[in-house]
Amino acid sequence: MDRQGVGTTITQHILKQQREKPEATGAFTTLLNELIVAAKVISREVNKAGLVDILGSTGKINVQEEQVQKLDVFANQIIIERMQHIGQLWCMGSEEDPDLIEIPAQYPKGDYILFFDPLDGSSNIDVNVSIGTIFGIYKRKEGGSGDLLLSEALQPGIEQVAAGYFIYGSSTIMVYTTGNGTGVHGFTLFPSVGEFLLSHENIRIPGKGKIYSVNEGNYPYWDEKTRALVDYFKTPDRETGRPYTSRYVGSLVADFHRNLLKGGIFMYPADMKDPKKPTGKLRLMVEANPLAMVVREAGGYASDGHGPILEIEPTELHQRVPLYIGSKEDVEMAEAFISGRVEA
Ligand code: P6P
Prior knowledge:
Elements: H1 10-19, H2 27-47, E1 57-61, E2 67-69, H3 70-84, E3 89-94, E4 101-102, E5 112-120, E6 131-139, H4 150-153, E7 162-168, E8 172-177, E9 185-190, E10 195-200, E11 211-213, H5 224-234, E12 245-246, H6 252-262, E13 265-268, H7 284-297, E14 301-303, E15 323-326, H8 328-338
Parallel strand pairs: 3-5, 11-12, 11-13
Antiparallel strand pairs: 1-2, 3-4, 5-6, 6-7, 7-8, 8-9, 9-10, 13-15, 14-15
The structure holds 6-O-phosphono-alpha-D-fructofuranose (P6P).
6-O-phosphono-alpha-D-fructofuranose binds near residues 120, 123, 215, 250 and 251.
C-alpha cells in the first residue's frame, strides 16, 4: 500500500506497460479496462449467488453439450454486452457460443479479437468452489477479407498479445500477461476501493513441483502411456521428490492458479470416456491457449503431450486438446511419457 493507502491499481499497471510501447494507441488499454469492469460485475453476482435465485441450471445444454448454469449465461452476456460497444474488437469467440460473435453494425469495429470462457468451472458454483473467467486477446491479421471468417479469426496461441484469468474465490484475483518478457502479474480486488490492486508482482512458477492434478476417475479410459505417467508421479522415489501430492479441485482456474503459485502439473489427458471427445475435455482457444501463455511467461510450459500448446494451428473454434501445464520439468516429463520417449 502506498501513502494514499491504495497501492498500484491494474489501470496504473497497464498504462505503465503501454507507455513503454511506442506503437500503443490506447486501444488495448481501453479493451482490457472494459473486460475488468465486466469481471467486477461477474464477481459481484458470483459472490451473492447463494442469496438470490441465480444458482442452478437453466435446463439448457450448450455447444459443449454441458448443462448451462444461470451464472454462465449471465457472465457470457455481461462480457459480450460490455465488450461489443467499445470499438476495439473485430469479433469475439466464447465457450458458450457455437459460432464467432459478430460486433453489431451500430458499433465501430476494432482490430482485436477476444476469445474467452466466461465462467469456467461453473458446475462448482452451487458448492461454493472457486470458478473463473479465462481470456486470450489477439490482433487481427492485416489484409483480411473484411468478412467474419473463422479462418481469419483463429490463430495459434503464440500470437496472443495478452492472456489471463479472473478467479472468483475467497477473494477475486486477476492474473494477466502481455507476453514478450513483460512477466505475469496478479491483482486482488478490494471491494471497498472497487479496484484491482497489485498483490502478486512478477509471478514465477517453480521449475519443478510437488503437486499433480488430474481426475483419476478417468484412469479406466486412459491409454497405457497416460496411466504410466500418472503412476510415475505416484511412485515413491526420494531423489525426485515422489510421490507428488494429489490436488484436484475440478475447476481449471483454481487448479491452475494454485500450481502457478506453488509449482506442479495439471493434466487433462485424452480419454475414451466420451468417444465424441477423444482429445480430452478442455478447449484450445478459450482455456489451453490463454493459460499456456501465462505459464510460459511465468517460466513454465504447456503441452498437448507431443509439443507446445501455443504452436497448435487451430482449425475449429471449439476444438479440444489434451493439456499438460505447469512446472517446466514436470510438463517435459509428461511429454516424454505421452510421446513414448520414456517407456511406460
Ligand atoms: P472433470 C469444469 O467443468 C472444467 O471445464 C474445468 O474447469 C475443469 O478443470 C474440468 O472441467 C474438470 O473436468 O471431468 O474432471 O470434472
